[in-house]
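Need residues for this backbone.
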């Protein structure tokens, strides 16, 4: 859930320098980043502008969309089952375990975006209002996310060392 506790200007945004870096990561999963005009609503956005949208294998962003939002939505695409992926439009669905898997994977993938990394992801997740019972994204990831890791492992999305496999959930 996004509480929008800070302005998007404090976040790393999907501008001309960051969008290609994001695209380089998500294209490994068959996702295509599409930019929406600055004055247009973002199609497929569950939480509304400026949050990223998902329609099929299209990850829709504007210049003011935070990278963490785009990566989170991209990870929903990766983590959902094939039936939901085939009819995906706006609502990624999924349950509690899958949502935790999405959050865990977005933190892992942050390290593959040059100049971004998990440290920045932790800070932006906390600032944006992601809530974890240990009080921060970093504390959750390092001390309370074993179930999320196991969920990703069982579904073949990470290997036993915690590296992304670059596979979609089957």
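Answer:
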């Amino acid at each position: 859930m996004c509480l929008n506790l800070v302005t998007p200007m404090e976040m790393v945004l999907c501008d001309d320098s960051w969008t290609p870096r994001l695209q380089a990561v998500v294209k490994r999963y068959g996702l295509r980043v599409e930019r929406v005009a600055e004055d247009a609503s973002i199609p497929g956005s569950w939480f509304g502008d400026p949050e990223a949208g998902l329609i099929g294998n299209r990850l829709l962003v504007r210049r003011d969309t935070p990278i963490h939002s785009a990566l989170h939505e991209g990870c929903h695409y990766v983590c959902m089952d094939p039936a939901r992926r085939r009819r995906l439009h706006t609502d990624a669905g999924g349950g509690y375990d899958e949502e935790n898997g999405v959050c865990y994977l977005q933190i892992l993938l942050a390290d593959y975006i040059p100049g971004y990394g998990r440290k920045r992801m932790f800070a932006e997740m906390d600032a944006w209002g992601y809530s974890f019972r240990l009080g921060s994204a970093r504390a959750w990831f390092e001390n309370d996310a074993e179930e999320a890791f196991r969920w990703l492992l069982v579904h073949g999305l990470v290997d036993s060392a915690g590296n992304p496999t670059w596979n979609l959930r089957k």
